[in-house]
Structures are given as C-alpha cells and as structure tokens.
Amino acid sequence: MAVTTAGSRLAEQWREILSVHARTMCEIDRALHPHGLGASDFEVLDILATTAPEQGDQCRVQNLVGRVHLSQSALSRLIARLEKEGLVERSLCVEDRRGVWVALTDRGRDLHAEVLPLQRAVLDRTLGEA
Predict the structure, then answer these.
(1) Residue 55 in 3-state DSSP?
(2) How far apart are CA 24 and CA 22, in angstroms?
(3) What's the average model confidence in pLDDT over 31-57?
(4) β partners of residue 59
(5) How confident is the model over 90-125, as pLDDT tens digits?
(6) Nearest 5°: CA angle at 112, between 106 and 93?
(7) Are the beta carbons of 103 and 24 closer than 8 angstroms?
(8) In sequence order, which residues have a C-beta less than 8 Å from that of residue 86 and are 6 or more positions away?
(9) What's the burial of 90, exposed, middle or buried (CB within 10 Å: 0-12/13-18/19+)?
(10) Has residue 1 got a pLDDT over 50?
C-alpha cells in the first residue's frame, strides 16, 4: 500500500485543477465556436465589457495581460484578430506613446451580449458541480 504524503496530495489536487480548467476551456470553445469565438477571445471581450462598461470606454492592453493568461505577444495577436473582425478598436495612449488602448465596438458589445449566456451556462455546468 502506497504511503500518501502531503506532497502527493497537493500534486493530485493540482492535477484536478488542471483537469477542470481544461474541460471548462474545451466546453467554452465548443459553445462559442459557432459564433466565431474561442474561450480566450471571449475572455478579452468579457473583461472589456466589465472593465469598460460604457460605450467608448477603453482599457489599456497592459491591464489585460495578467487577466487573460496569455503572453503579451499572444494577446497582441488575439487583439489584432478581434480588431480585424470589427469587435474591438485599438488606439495609442496620448499620455504614454508605449501604451495601447483597446475598446469594444458596437459589434463586439452585441456579440458579447449574445454569447454571454452560453459561456455562463458552461461555467454553471462545469464549475457549479464542484
């Protein structure tokens, strides 16, 4: 009979967290795919919708980096794709030329509102049981 150590219990707990995360992300991807979005796309739209709730409100890209869990370059590519699809707009920060602002467009706000119930239903199914 194997001896269970505190370290092995933590490792198992960690693996369960990773498993729940992977299942949840895959479910969100499946639910949003018909709308042309993936889980990370939705996260950016959702953060922008809640951080900058009024039309025209902006958020610095730098503030998204720690919240979306993508590298700076991956986030930049994602935002560029969302901009190309007309879901967000980017602009330079006048006060700090290194900074970039991003804001939802009307189309992005509408799509976010349309798919929000789908994403929340996945969260309820996958995390509501936990």
Answers:
(1) coil
(2) 5
(3) 87
(4) 102
(5) 888 766 666 788 999 999 999 999 999 999 999 999
(6) 55
(7) no
(8) 105, 107, 108
(9) middle
(10) no
Residue 4 has pLDDT above 70, yes or no: no
Looking at residue 36, the DSSP 8-state letter turns out to be: T
Q: Give the length of the chain.
A: 130
* Contact of 68 with 43, CB cutoff 8 Å: yes
**Is residue 3's pLDDT more than 60?**
no
**Tokens found for residue 56:** 């025209």
Could you give the CA distance from residue 68 to residue 90 in angstroms, rounded to a whole number?
Answer: 17
Q: Please classify residue 97 by burial: count the beta carbons closer than 10 Å to its beta carbon, then call 0-12 exposed, 13-18 middle and 19+ buried.
A: exposed
CA atoms of 122 and 27, how far apart (whole Å): 6
